[in-house]
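[Q] Does anyone have a clean structure-token version of this?
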Amino acid sequence: MVCKGTSLNVEVGFLYSFTGELYCGLRLGSRTLVASPVNMSCCDSVDGKRVLDDVKDYYGKRLKKSDDLRIPTACSTQQTAGVPLAVRAAIGEVHDEVVTRYYGCGLITPEHVDGCKVLDLGSGTGRDVYMLSKLVGEKGFVTGVDMTDEQLEIANKYVSYHTEKFGYSKPNVEFIKGYIEKLGEAGLKDNTYDIIVSNCVVNLSPDKKAVLTEAHRVLKTGGELYFSDMYADRDLPEDIRKHQVLWGECFAGALSWKEFAEISTKIGFSQPRIVSASLSPIEDPELKAVVGDYQFASVTYRLFKLPATKDESCEAVYNGGISGWEDTLKLDYNHTFKKSEAVGVDSELATILKHSRFAEKFQFEKISDALADEDNLVDPFQYISVHGQSPNACCASDDKPATNGGCCKPTEK
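[A] Here you go.
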């Protein structure tokens, strides 16, 4: 039984979760240090800093290309199946070196980003920043935050290249060195961004609650956190949490989906909405022996920062016109809007549509009888068991759903 204030006999610099609270533990040889709860700033503790240093070393020095990953299905993707041609084209215009040194576990392609201010948490070499740079247009702006010098060096190397390639008069991107747990220290102000994206990075943080809290702070009301990450089917035990390779490759630091949902809604986000989900099995024999029967899934969720007072349920009619989604807009696994068709939406979804960037693309009609709030499916493993793996998840093809996990090696360009 481990309690707050007791010693943990664990390895250096790894995060633990017990009964909904997050703790940091540290062992130096046979010496143990007292665990500290995340809400006392785990990232500022010696052990929290070790986690960050381990991640910086892994992604900055040990990994030189996607093929260096021990788990091919972990943290790397160039799959573009099931996404609009404009998005595929944007990815295709990103410089080869940026792509080769990029690690992520999904495709983060939120709809209707024209002219938006976007923030990428853990932007790495900048693949998604540059993709979004093309999609938001010259009037939009994309900021990437990363803590790894080697990754930032590559990202900054190609700012001028992409500005010229996209035909812009000046750059619409910037890369900032900083910690995603401490966006204020990186100079990011309250209520600034329309959209925040992140690609298989939050699970690497030693203080996930701080990451989500900071994301909520810098989003505008109606803004969205749209991100892919790795999740476990239940809380992970110590022997998995302390494994350095599994941590670096996005598995050991994964929250359980249930803990993630509890943290995000407590911070003030809308309930998480599944966009896509697929299993991420571990095939490496050594690592598989450590993991046992624990399951992992690569999931894209969307969370919205909503006003304090929700709107009433209503009928929503999609007017069309979003590039790439002209006739049909799929907001999440359970809500698809066809152009000109009225769809009843509950209070939370009505609030999302009316206060987000999507508002200008919808018409709203009052209804006589209020709709009950929906109980959306948040568990990705239940989603997969009911609906199958997402056909547009990484490693899927246009005609074949994903079968080998949420992430994959990049294809040849």
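[Q] Thanks! Anything notable?
[A] The chain has 13 helices and 16 strands.
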